[in-house]
Design brief:
This protein is mostly helical and 416 residues long. Helices cover 66% and strands 5% of the residues. The protein folds into two domains: 235 residues, no CATH class; 134 residues, D-Maltodextrin-Binding Protein, domain 2 (3-Layer(aba) Sandwich), CATH 3.40.190.
Length: 416
């Protein structure tokens, strides 16, 4: 009866301090939300680069270059805005990523083979997008330069045609077409077909019989690992009460009542376990409400119980090895963050270097994340995640046993 009373007392204490409890739940949910926004694959999240085009030339070449992003595919990624002199003021206000300026006489100078400059003004408040525009401009300038060298005669002829008010003769047009065709034939070996080809494929997720995607969202990819990290912090908060009870003298008062040291330790261990389990189920429920498919219900429940046992046991063990709340906070925070980092809560273990992957398997975070991913992606049943359950459950029992024994020894020695 005494252990149950201690459990109810600790639960009531958490209810009376909802702000601390809410903050503990907010950490994994906030991180999962941020990762989902950053790494989400929605079409609506595509980046569009806004570029101002100041064409003082209004010639054939400048118009062609100014409309280079007018294809349907590029329209979603490149927003070309024709402007005049007001474009410079717009750039000062940071209204675009870059401004491309074609000076007056650009087309005629290019056709005549004279040096010409395309100016690109970048927005200093942005880092990546203006660099994309600059690199695109460098590629375009290189293509134009090489085209000018290869087709110099034909371009000069076209340039002379543009200066005449009369229509060019059939012979002049034919000579340009013949020259271009002859040079293209000489380049056919290297240009047609190109040495390197690029093939792109859009993967369509598989669908279930109900027509829904069998894959999971990016939120579902990160939520298991971040939930495990959040439950470790929740268990840290629950075990902090053990040291708080000692420093406040509450333990001595409890032991003067008909409560044995074994009852007190059992009650505190059960309290941490109950808090961790309820917290994990809350995070699972939040994920379901957000559209996350955790996989088979039985597998999810088994993994939640095993992971909560591992988290509770680990934090009880840590609290049994320190003397003050401050020491417990420092040590447990370090352990939780290291386990989360190398256990795959933030980055998949498959992306780790070879020497780090074996270390990941020493953490309960790895076994929890691995089990949940099997359930979510493969629909694994309990048998398929039996190794994960055995590792998490076995580690939890061992940690709890060692922690309880250490607490019992400290109580017997008058240290708690």
């Amino acid at each position: 009866m005494a252990p149950l009373i201690i459990v109810l007392r600790d639960l009531r204490r958490m209810v009376r301090n909802p702000v601390r409890t809410a903050l503990l739940f907010a950490l994994p949910l906030m991180l999962a939300g941020i990762f989902a926004l950053v790494f989400g694959g929605d079409a609506g999240s595509e980046i569009s680069i806004r570029v101002l085009v100041f064409d003082e030339d209004q010639g054939l070449v400048s118009r062609l270059l100014g409309g280079a992003g007018s294809s349907p595919d590029m329209d979603r990624r490149l927003d070309l805005v024709p402007v005049g002199n007001e474009g410079f003021k717009m750039m000062e206000r940071g209204e675009a990523s870059a401004l491309v300026h074609f000076p007056a006489g650009f087309t005629q100078s290019y056709l005549d083979g004279e040096p010409v400059v395309i100016s690109i003004i970048k927005n200093p408040a942005e880092r990546f997008l203006p660099q994309v525009v600059e690199e695109g401009g460098r590629i375009g300038a290189e293509i134009l330069s090489q085209g000018s060298r290869v087709f110099r005669t034909e371009l000069a002829t076209i340039g002379s045609m543009t200066t005449n008010t009369a229509f060019p003769s059939d012979l002049a047009v034919g000579s340009v077409a013949s020259g271009v065709n002859h040079k293209l034939q000489s380049l056919e070996r290297w240009v047609f077909p190109p040495v390197i080809d690029l093939e792109t494929t859009t993967v369509t997720p598989e669908t279930t019989d109900e027509g829904e995607n069998s894959g999971n969202s990016i939120l579902g990819f990160f939520l298991p690992g971040l939930s495990m990290m959040g439950i470790l912090f929740l268990a840290q908060s629950a075990t902090r009460d053990i040291l708080h009870d000692r420093e406040s003298g509450l333990v001595r008062h409890l032991l003067t009542a008909p409560v044995s040291p074994a009852d007190y330790i059992l009650g505190k261990c059960l309290s941490v376990l109950v808090v961790s389990t309820l917290g994990f189920f809350f995070l699972v429920a939040f994920g379901i409400a957000a559209g996350v498919d955790w996989g088979p219900a039985a597998t999810t429940v088994a993994l939640v119980l095993a992971a909560s046992l591992a988290a509770a046991g680990a934090l009880v063990l840590i609290s049994s090895m320190v003397g003050t709340e401050r020491q417990a906070d420092a040590l447990s925070t370090i352990v939780i963050m290291v386990w989360s980092l190398i256990g795959g809560a933030f980055v998949p273990v498959s992306q780790f270097p070879d020497f780090l992957r074996p270390l990941a398997k020493t953490t309960p975070v790895f076994w929890a994340v691995d089990g949940f991913q099997k359930a979510m992606q493969q629909g694994a049943d309990i048998a398929a995640v039996s190794t994960n359950l055995l590792v998490l459950g076995g580690a939890g029992v061992i940690f709890l046993g060692l922690g309880a024994a250490a607490l019992r020894r400290r109580m017997a020695g008058g240290l708690i």
